[in-house]
C-alpha cells in the first residue's frame, strides 16, 4: 500500500548571520531573544513542519581584518536553544548544525543523545565540515584540518558517535529496587575506537535515547560530501533549487546510496530556500525586488563580490560596471569566516561578466542576481504548486525554508501555503508519530544493532 | 543591632538524590531519570520553595565510587544527561530560580562553553550560572588527547599527584578567564541597528579577547552577544587549598565541605585570605557549605530513614560533605549557627529525591522565613539579583583606552 503522493518534508530555519536577513525591515525582531526562537518554532509546529533548523558559524566574519558590521550578527549556542525549544514544542524535530572539526565525539554525542532524551526523540544533527584555520583561532586546539581530511574526520566522527549511541542496550536500565539492581550489566556504555583521528576508549554515560540515534543530516556537495552523505546521512541539506540539476543530484545520490548498500530513498534530500508571497504574482515579484535591494546595498554588493575577487573592491561604484581587474585568489584573504564560494574564481568572474553584459547589470545588479536569490516567489497557490511539483517529480523530498524577516516571516507561509499543501494531501494534517524519525518517515533504528560492535574505519 | 543577613539557599540535583540507595526508595522515579518531566518537576518544586538556584551535576565519565575509573557496580544510578541541556530544557518552564549546570573543563572548549551558558542566560531570562569543575581522570581516555596519572584515595596526597592537581586547577582558572572575557567581548550596546549608516553592530564595541595562556589561546570575540546578566555567576566546589585558590580567583560562589563549626571558621578564613590575595577583597564571593540532608518529622525518624538507606549498602556511604539527618527545624538551627561563623549560604544535597527536596521547600524554607532569615517571595528576577551581585559593565567598555590598543593588536 503505497501512498499516492510523496509527503513533502518541511524544515524551518531561523535567520542566518548574513545579508539574507533584512534587519532593517520594520517587522524584524531580535536575532537573539529566546522569544524569537519560540515564535519561529511554534509557528513551524502549527504548520506541521517536520523540524526546526539552526545553522552554525563559529567566528565573526571579517573583511580586511575588520569585523563585518553590515549584516545581522550574534546568535545563540545551538544545543541549549534547541533544548529550551523542546520545552515549548511537542512534535517538531530539533536539528542543529554542529561542526565535526571543532568538537569532540564523546562530548557532542552525549549532548545530542541528551537532547534526544530531553525532547522525547526529536534531535537531529547537521554535520558540517568547515575546517579553516581562521575559525580555529577560537579553539584551544586550533583545529586546522587539511581540506582533504575534513570528511575523513567527519566520517570517523559520525561512526564513533554512532558507536557511542549504540553502546547502551535498550534494556540496560532495569531499576529493580527490590533486588538493588539498577544496571543490567556493569559494562553498559563500553566502547573502544582506534582510528586516524580518534583513539579513545571507556564508557559512554548517556543511556540509549528515544530514537536510538539522533537523525543525521549533511550539508556539502563535493564528491566526498556526496559519498559521505550516501554512506552515513539520513537527510541532506542541499543547494539545488532548479528542477533539472536537482533531479540530476537526486539520481546521483540514489546511485551512490545503492553503491553504499543502502536502499534508494533512505536519504531525504532537502534543498534550502526562501520565499516571498504576494496576493498576485506581480505583487510578489515587486516585493521580491524591494527585498533584494534591502538585502544587497551597494556596500554589501562590493563585499559579496570581494568573496570571489579576493580584492578590495570598495573603490568600485556599485552602480557602475563590474570591476575590470582579475580576481586574486592567491593574495591574502580579504574576507574571512565564510565558506569559500567559488572553486575557480576566474571561471566564476568570466560567467558573471557574460551575465552582466547580457543583462546590462551594474555591480550591484549582478550581486543581487547571484547572491539575493529568492527561490519561491508568487501567490500562495503558485508556491504550493511549485513545491509540490518539485517533490512529486523527485527534485527533492522537501525543503528547509527560511524567511528574510525573522522571526515572523514564516507565519505567512504557515497561514497561506500550508493549508493548500494539506488540501492536496502532500502535507500531514496532524502529526502521526512522536519522533523526528517518525516525522521524516525514516525507519526506526533497529534494536538488534544495540550490541553489534561497530567497525572502526581504517 | 544590625539585621542578620538573609541566608542563600541552593539545592544540588543529581540522579535520584545523593544517597547511593536513593533510587530504591518508594518515592523515587528511577526509570524517569532521563526524561524531561522528572527534571521539570524537581526544579518547579525548588522554585516553589523560593530557592536561589539549583545545580545540576555532570561529568564526562560514568559515575563511579572510585576516583580513578569505573567501579563496575550495578547497584547504583549510572548515566547522566548533559547538565547544560537539562537546565536549558527546564528554563522556559520556570521563571525565577537560578539554573547552574556543572561542566568539566579540561577536555572542553571555553568558546563553546561560554556561548552555551550565555544562551542558557538568554533562554532563562537571566537565570544562568555555571559550576566549573576540573573533571576526573576517567574522562581523559574518552578524549584520547592527554594522559592523566592514576589517582586513588591513597596516592592523593603525594607530591606528583598534588602537582598534577595544581596544574589542572590552573588550567581550569584559565578556562574560566576565557569564558568570562568572551561574555564581555560584546559590549551591551554593541548592537545598534543603524539603518542610516547600514550598520547592524558598532564594531568598536566588539572585542578580541586575545587570550594566550600556558595551555591554549583563544581569539574571540564570541559569536553570542553579551548575556542578560553580563556575567552569569561562576561557582566551584572546593575541598582544599588549591581549589579554594581557584574559587577565590575566578568564582562568585564557592561550595565548601566543613563538618563542624571549627572547620567552618578555618575554611572561611582560608577562602577569605585567598580572596584578598587574588586582589578581590572588595568583591562579593559567597561561601556556601554543602550538606547532604535527610529530613523527617523527628530526629529519630530521620536517623531511621538514613539507617534504612545505609542498610542497602555494603559499607556506609562515604561523602565529602557532612550528612545531616534530623528535623527541618534542627537543620535551620545548624544553618544559622554556621552562618554566624562566616558562611553566606548553603547548597543542600537532598539524600532522596523528591522527599528531601520537598522537606527543604515546604518545611525548611518556611521555617527560616518565620525566623526572618529567608525570603518570602522572590524580589529579583536574575540569579545575580538573588545573590546580591550587581550587574557588571563589560571589562572592555570600562577601559576605552585599552579598547583601541586591543582592537589594533
Ligand atoms: C546548504 C548548505 C548549508 C551549509 N550550512 C553550513 C553551516 O551552517 N555551517 C557551516 O559551518 N558550514 C555549512 N555548510 C558548509 C559545509 O558543511 C561544508 O563545509 C562545505 O560545503 C564544504 O564541503 P563540500 O566541499 O563537500 O561542499 C553548508 C553547506 C551547504 C551546501
What is the helix/strand order of chain B? EHEHEHEHEEEEEHEHEHEHEHHHH
Strand count of chain A: 16
By CATH's scheme, which homologous superfamily of chain B applies? Luciferase-like domain
Which percent bin holds the helix content of chain A? 25-40%
Chain pair with largest interface:
A-B, 76 and 81 residues
At CATH level 2, the architecture of chain B is: Alpha-Beta Barrel
Task: Give the strand order, joined by hyphens, for the main sheet of chain A.
Answer: 1-2-5-6-11-12-13-16
Count of individual helical segments of chain A: 15
Q: Specify the CATH class of the largest domain in chain A.
A: Alpha Beta
Bound ions, cofactors and other small molecules, one mention each: flavin mononucleotide
> Which of globular, elongated, flat, extended, rod-shaped describes the shape of chain A?
globular
- Estimate nothing, just give the exact number of structural domains of chain A: 2
Task: Work out the strand percent of chain A.
Answer: 15-25%
Amino acid at each position: 500500500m503505497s501512498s499516492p503522493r510523496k509527503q513533502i518534508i518541511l524544515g524551518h530555519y531561523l535567520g542566518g548571520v548574513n545579508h539574507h536577513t533584512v534587519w532593517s525591515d520594520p517587522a524584524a525582531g531580535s536575532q537573539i531573544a529566546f522569544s524569537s526562537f519560540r515564535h519561529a518554532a511554534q509557528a513551524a509546529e502549527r504548520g506541521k513542519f517536520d523540524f526546526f533548523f539552526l545553522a552554525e558559524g563559529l567566528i565573526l566574519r571579517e573583511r580586511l581584518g575588520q569585523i563585518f558590521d553590515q549584516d545581522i550578527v550574534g546568535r545563540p549556542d545551538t544545543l541549549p536553544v534547541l533544548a529550551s525549544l523542546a520545552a515549548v514544542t511537542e512534535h517538531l524535530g530539533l536539528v542543529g548544525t554542529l561542526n565535526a572539526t571543532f568538537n569532540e565525539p564523546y562530548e557532542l554525542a552525549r549532548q545530542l543523545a541528551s537532547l534526544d532524551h530531553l525532547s522525547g526523540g526529536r534531535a537531529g544533527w547537521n554535520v558540517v565540515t568547515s575546517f579553516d584555520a581562521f575559525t580555529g583561532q577560537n579553539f584551544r586546539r586550533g583545529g586546522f584540518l587539511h581540506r582533504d581530511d575534513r570528511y575523513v574526520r567527519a566520517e570517523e566522527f559520525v561512526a564513533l558517535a554512532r558507536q557511542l549511541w549504540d553502546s547502551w542496550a535498550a534494556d540496560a536500565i532495569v531499576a529493580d529496587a527490590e533486588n538493588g539492581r539498577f544496571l543490567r550489566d556493569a559494562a553498559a556504555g563500553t566502547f573502544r575506537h582506534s582510528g586516524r583521528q580518534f583513539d579513545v576508549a571507556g564508557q559512554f554515560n548517556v543511556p540509549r535515547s528515544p530514537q536510538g540515534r539522533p537523525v543525521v543530516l549533511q550539508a556539502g556537495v563535493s564528491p566526498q560530501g556526496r559519498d559521505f552523505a550516501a554512506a552515513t546521512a539520513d537527510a541532506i541539506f542541499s543547494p539545488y533549487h532548479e528542477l533539472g540539476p536537482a533531479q540530476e543530484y537526486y539520481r546521483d545520490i540514489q546511485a551512490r546510496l545503492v553503491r553504499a548498500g543502502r536502499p534508494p530513498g533512505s536519504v531525504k534530500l532537502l534543498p534550502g530556500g526562501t520565499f516571498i508571497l504576494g496576493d498576485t504574482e506581480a505583487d510578489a515579484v515587486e516585493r521580491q525586488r524591494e527585498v533584494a535591494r534591502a538585502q544587497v546595498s551597494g556596500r554589501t554588493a562590493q563585499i559579496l563580490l570581494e568573496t570571489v575577487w579576493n580584492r578590495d573592491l570598495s573603490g568600485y561604484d556599485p552602480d557602475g560596471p563590474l570591476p575590470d581587474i582579475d580576481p586574486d585568489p592567491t593574495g591574502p584573504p580579504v574576507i574571512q569566516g565564510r565558506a569559500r564560494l567559488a572553486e575557480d574564481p576566474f571561471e566564476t568572474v568570466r560567467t558573471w561578466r557574460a551575465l552582466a553584459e547580457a543583462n546590462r547589470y551594474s555591480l550591484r545588479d549582478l550581486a543581487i542576481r547571484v547572491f539575493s536569490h529568492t527561490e519561491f516567489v508568487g501567490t500562495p497557490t503558485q508556491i504550493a504548486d511549485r513545491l509540490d511539483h518539485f517533490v512529486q517529480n523527485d527534485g527533492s523530498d522537501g525543503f528547509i525554508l527560511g524567511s528574510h524577516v525573522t522571526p515572523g516571516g514564516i507565519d505567512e507561509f504557515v497561514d497561506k501555503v500550508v493549508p493548500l499543501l494539506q488540501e492536496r494531501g502532500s502535507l500531514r494534517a496532524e502529526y502521526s508519530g512522536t519522533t523526528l524519525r517518525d516525522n521524516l518517515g525514516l525507519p526506526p533504528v533497529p534494536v538488534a544493532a544495540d550490541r553489534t560492535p561497530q567497525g572502526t574505519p581504517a | 543591632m544590625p539585621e542578620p543577613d538573609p541566608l542563600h539557599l541552593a539545592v544540588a540535583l543529581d540522579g535520584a538524590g545523593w544517597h547511593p540507595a536513593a533510587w530504591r526508595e518508594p518515592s523515587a522515579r528511577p526509570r524517569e531519570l532521563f526524561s524531561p518531566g522528572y527534571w521539570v518537576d524537581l526544579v518547579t518544586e525548588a522554585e516553589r520553595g523560593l530557592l536561589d538556584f539549583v545545580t545540576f551535576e555532570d561529568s564526562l565519565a560514568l559515575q563511579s565510587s572510585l576516583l580513578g575509573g569505573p567501579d563496575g557496580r550495578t547497584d547504583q544510578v549510572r548515566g547522566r544527561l548533559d547538565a547544560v541541556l537539562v537546565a536549558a530544557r527546564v528554563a522556559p518552564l520556570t521563571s525565577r530560580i537560578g539554573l547552574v549546570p556543572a561542566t568539566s573543563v579540561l577536555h572542553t572548549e571555553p568558546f563553546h562553553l561560554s556561548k552555551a551558558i550565555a544562551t542558557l542566560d538568554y533562554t532563562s531570562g537571566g537565570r544562568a550560572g555555571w559550576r566549573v569543575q576540573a573533571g576526573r581522570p576517567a574522562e581523559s581516555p574518552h578524549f584520547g588527547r592527554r594522559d592523566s596519572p592514576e589517582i586513588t584515595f591513597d596516592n592523593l596526597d603525594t607530591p606528583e599527584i598534588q602537582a598534577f592537581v595544581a596544574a589542572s586547577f590552573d588550567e581550569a582558572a584559565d578556562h574560566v578567564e576565557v569564558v568570562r572575557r568572551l561574555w564581555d567581548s560584546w559590549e551591551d550596546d554593541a548592537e545598534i541597528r543603524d539603518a542610516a549608516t547600514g550598520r547592524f553592530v558598532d564594531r568598536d564595541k566588539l572585542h578580541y579577547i586575545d587570550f594566550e595562556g600556558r595551555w591554549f589561546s583563544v581569539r574571540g570575540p564570541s559569536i553570542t552577544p553579551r548575556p542578560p546578566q553580563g556575567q552569569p555567576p561562576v561557582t566551584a566546589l572546593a575541598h582544599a587549598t588549591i581549589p579554594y585558590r581557584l574559587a577565590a580567583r575566578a568564582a562568585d560562589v564557592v561550595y565548601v565541605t566543613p563538618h563542624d563549626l571549627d572547620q567552618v571558621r578555618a575554611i572561611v578564613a582560608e577562602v577569605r585570605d585567598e580572596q584578598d590575595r587574588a586582589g578581590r577583597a572588595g568583591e562579593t564571593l559567597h561561601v556556601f557549605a554543602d550538606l547532604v540532608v535527610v529530613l523527617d518529622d523527628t530526629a529519630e525518624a530521620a536517623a531511621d530513614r538514613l539507617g534504612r538507606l545505609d542498610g542497602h549498602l555494603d559499607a556506609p556511604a562515604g561523602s565529602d560533605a557532612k550528612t545531616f539527618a534530623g528535623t527541618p527545624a534542627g537543620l535551620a538551627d545548624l544553618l544559622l549557627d554556621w552562618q554566624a561563623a562566616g558562611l553566606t549560604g548553603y547548597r543542600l544535597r537532598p539524600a532522596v529525591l523528591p522527599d528531601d527536596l520537598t522537606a527543604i521547600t515546604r518545611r525548611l524554607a518556611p521555617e527560616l522565613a518565620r525566623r526572618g532569615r529567608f525570603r518570602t517571595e522572590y524580589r529579583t528576577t536574575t540569579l545575580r539579583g538573588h545573590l546580591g551581585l550587581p550587574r557588571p559593565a563589560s571589562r572592555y567598555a570600562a577601559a576605552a583606552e585599552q579598547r583601541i590598543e586591543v582592537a589594533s593588536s
